[in-house]
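Protocol step 4 of 6: structure prediction from sequence.
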Amino acid sequence: MRTKPFAVIQHGAFLFIVHAYTARQARSLVAARLTMQTKTTLPAIIVIIAASTAAAASFTTISGPSRVLDGDTVAVGNIIIRLKGVDAPERSTDLGEAATTVMKTIVGTSNLTCSLTGEQTHRREVGYCSTADGTDINQAIIEHGAALSCPRFDARYLPFEQPEQLAAQPRATYCVARVR
């Protein structure tokens, strides 16, 4: 089990250790207090930010009962997870409803185990999930032809795309690598 990110905040003679849900929250806590700190505490704060960032680099794994929200989003307990590397159609479309149905078939009544990357998008955690029998649901939804890969964020699922799905669904613009 890994240690959660944390922030150390000095207030006068007191030193507070604040556990945060994510490294981003830890940095925000420190930044909020930075405006009230003297320059003498800055080196300590920089060390703490580095420590919390390193902690976020490792994955947090969660397991438990799950529910499918759409083709690329599931919930484990009360944590909502956006599947990394998956571009499923929006649920409000016919293809999106079909993707949701396929994902419900893949997951079934299985508990999910998800490795969270520490990233967040639209207040959702980002991660890789598998069923109790070891099925990688990120890969499975793409193999079933109900979603595309999202190579800008993770190209590992690109080889599993189905040509029919690529023809039926344009890749989301946020999944296309930006040209600089």
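Step 5 (inspection) to follow. The chain has two domains: 6-57, 60-175.
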